[in-house]
Amino acid sequence: MQNLLLSKLREGKPTIGSWVALSDPYCVEVMANAGYDWLIIDTEHCPIGPESLRNILIAMGQSPTAAIVRLMNNHPDYFKTALDLGAAGVMVPGIETVEDARRAVAASRYPPAGTRGCGPVRASNYFKHFDRYMESANEDVLVILQIETAEAVSQLNAIMAVPGVDGVFVGPSDLALSLTARKGHKPDVRAVIDQVFRAAHAVGMPYGTLAESPAECGRLIREGAQLMTIGGDLGFVIEGAAVTLRDARARLESQEVVGDVRTGSSQA
């Protein structure tokens, strides 16, 4: 199956994604059917193990939305699990050096281009399309590297020059922590992020980050970002529940309540 997200990036088109933290298939289907270009399944910070990941990918199976798995770390085993289960690509955290980037690309490619082990059970439709998958996997698997430390920023141009890197994605919270630890004070994180974006734009590398609002998402896309995300399932549940309850209580408080809500009888 063609990787539609990768095709859009190679054509220079912007894409908008969101985040999956909840593994319930109903919730996953709702997110996949919402129309995002891609969803990041967060196995780094959320309790999503191999079986939950399998269920998430099955729930997304009928959607054109690309499933990108944010791995727990840069260990080859996590690439193997995500890609064999049928993910369209991976987002790799903790990238700081050229060697980190090379290891990530190698773990996502079959020999001789890389070191990925052969066993694409679900990815090849349970071996029904094994030959076709093996022929195209090295070109179709998307590799996005996270830039989230001061060291990564200092090595950015060399990291982006590694063949097989398809995009970079800034993790603003970790980047802020790293910059603060290095400099001993809170730096201008926004300026550093802009520096990353300019460097990526200059070499034609797709880039993006988490937008705090639709307005910010639109602004960054207009400036050249292709890999933007906004919101996520857990945040949508938290916000929706809180807003709905707050609205209901505000309406109650704005009017005099007459009668017993349990019996409907009036109170003299």
Describe it.
- With 268 residues, the protein is an alpha/beta fold.
- The protein has one domain (4-253): Alpha-Beta Barrel (TIM Barrel), CATH 3.20.20.60.
- Helix content is 45%, strand content 15%.
- An eight-stranded parallel barrel has the order 1-2-3-4-5-6-7-8, surrounded by eight helices.
- The longest helix has 21 residues, at 233-253.
- The model has no long low-confidence stretch (mean pLDDT 94).
Question: Which features characterize this protein?
Answer:
268 residues, alpha/beta, TIM Barrel, eight-stranded parallel barrel, 12 helices, 8 strands, globular
Can you describe this structure in just a few lines?
The protein has 268 residues and is of the alpha/beta class. It has helices spanning 4-10, 25-32, 50-59, 76-84, 98-107, 130-140, 150-154, 156-160, 172-183, 189-202, 214-222, 233-253; strands spanning 15-20, 38-42, 66-70, 89-92, 142-147, 167-170, 207-211, 227-232. It has one domain: Alpha-Beta Barrel (TIM Barrel).
Order of helices and strands: HEHEHEHEHHEHHEHHEHEH
The second-level CATH architecture is Alpha-Beta Barrel
The CATH superfamily title: Phosphoenolpyruvate-binding domains
Largest sheet: 8 strands, parallel, barrel
CATH class: Alpha Beta
* Relative strand content: 15-25%
Give average pLDDT, whole number.
Answer: 94
Overall geometric form: globular
- CATH topology name: TIM Barrel
Number of helices: 12
Quaternary structure annotation: single chain
C-alpha termini separation: 71 Å
